[in-house]
Amino acid sequence: MVDAAVKELDRLCGAQLELCNIINVEHDYVLSRFSNYTWFSKKLSDRDEQEVVDIVHKELGICDRPRWYHKLVRCPSGRGFF
């Protein structure tokens, strides 16, 4: 159900969105447009990015502004996350 909702938001926004696990006390995951690593290739114009944010806010009933979060990443040793 969540995957279907993300796909529908992708369609409505015309931009690729993904769910990401994060390190946060209040939330387990966030809806993400890009990471520090994919920003350059996925970033839209400021106007288009704002349109994506506006659509997501409207569809999900969110009033908060977009934020940065630390994403859970598996350690190179494979023995945990950082």
Structure commentary:
The protein contains 3 helices and 2 strands. The protein is an alpha+beta fold. The protein has one domain. Strands 1-2 form a two-stranded antiparallel sheet. It starts with a helix and ends in a 22-residue tail after the last helix. The mean pLDDT is 80.
Task: Write the topology of this structure.
Blueprint: H1 2-13, E1 18-21, E2 29-32, H2 39-42, H3 46-60
Antiparallel strand pairs: 1-2
Order of helices and strands: HEEHH
Quickly count the domains. Answer: 1
Largest sheet: 2 strands, antiparallel
- What is the average of the pLDDT values? 80
How would you classify the helix and strand content by structural class?
Answer: alpha+beta
Distance between the termini: 28 Å
How many beta-strand segments? Answer: 2
Low-pLDDT runs? none
* Spatial extent as radius of gyration: 14 Å
Relative helix content: 25-40%
Question: Tell me, what's the shape?
Answer: globular
- Strand-residue proportion: 5-15%
Discrete helix count? 3
Short account of what is shown:
This protein has one domain. The protein has three helices and two strands, in the order αββαα. The protein is of the alpha+beta class.
